[in-house]
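User: I'm curious whether this sequence folds into something compact or stays loose and floppy. Could you predict its structure so I can see for myself?
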Amino acid sequence: MDDPATIGRRVQRLRTQHGLTQKQLADPRYTPAYVSTLESGRVRPSETALRFLAERLGTSYEELATGRPAHLATELRLALVEARRQLATGTAEEAAVRYRRLLTDAEHLGLEPEQAEALLGLGDCALESGQLADAGRHFQAVERLLAEEPLPRRARAIRGRAVAHLLAGELRYACYLLESAIDELGASGLADPEALVVLYAAVIGPYMDMGAHARAAHAAELALALAPQVDDPALLAGMHRQVARTFLAEGRTADADASLAKAQAIYQQLSLRTDLAHCHWMRGYVLAQSGELASAETELRAAREMLSSRRAALFTAQVEVELADVLRRLGRHDEASELLSAFLELGDRHGAVHAGGAHRLLGLIAEERGDSETAEEHYVTALGLLERSGASGDLADLCRLLGDLLRRGGRTEAALDAYRTGLGHRSAPGTTTLGPAPTAPALPRR
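Assistant: Here's the prediction. I'll summarize afterward.
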């Protein structure tokens, strides 16, 4: 809202244009003296008063309060919806161009909610393009812009920043961001179901990567309990996709596949192609865990093709690591090595967790070919990457592989050191080096 003097001049100008006296404008709810005081800028009018006066002056509350025609804000909101559709069906680069233009328009008009929406879109575009630092900056800008708003308004930005850290291999910090927001929601009494589902679904990924399976399962349970109170289908689909990971960890393969089927149906209906590719990716992983390697390869290749066509370089490269594992298990070592080598040539900008996974697979391939020295080099490199990221579950398995390799080579003491390191990362099921789990907020009933 503009300052009282500006609003007063605007009311006086419109009243004069309509040929109204102060008494005619004020009747029947206000007095001529109130209108006179308002026009002179000596009082800040309430929203109720401005809405009454706007109706009498044949304009909108927004135009009277800010000087901006209401249709401009409406057109901007429609353009943001179109940009979101373009991100879903086109490429991130094309959508980012539109979002940047809309951000400039929103800044010019002083429309903070629309600025926040444009910045969220730019953050999502950067995530898909693998520009993780840029994504984090866009999401932080949203949090600053909405700093005075209730926490539920910032939930999507917090989720986005946490995902950027997760993809960069910074698992503990991703957990910290999400758990802090969940705790703050509980402490403030703002247990908004949609915001909680956003946060609970997002925290499952870093929990799983850190080996905190019980905590991930609890987050999934709370998200599922809140699902009936959420109306956003894309959010529900994302939740089902994440919940499938906890089912898989518990050996509930059929439940995991059912969750993915729900997500996939929604994504197909909404034409969300990147998210649909993620479903193919996850289903490929589920099939691989069940030993159905041929079907797993089909799903992973479908995901890779879809992501590559959208120029989602980060996700494409990560799918290729999963595909390489399937190819290795099928005995196609050359194809697997070629995929992994191409991935590693790009450096570790695709995340320490996946880079560590690539070195682990190359170590397995070298070991299966009888090249123990090369296998050890890859295992040691993978250990360094995974220790940096805090992926405890993967670390314990990698230490076992290294220990077995060293033991078979007659290096018993070195093998024992590797096993001891692995035991240090092998905590009790469901525990984590994180602090106490966030307190579940008291949930409202619809």
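Summary: The longest helix spans residues 70-89. The mean pLDDT is 88.
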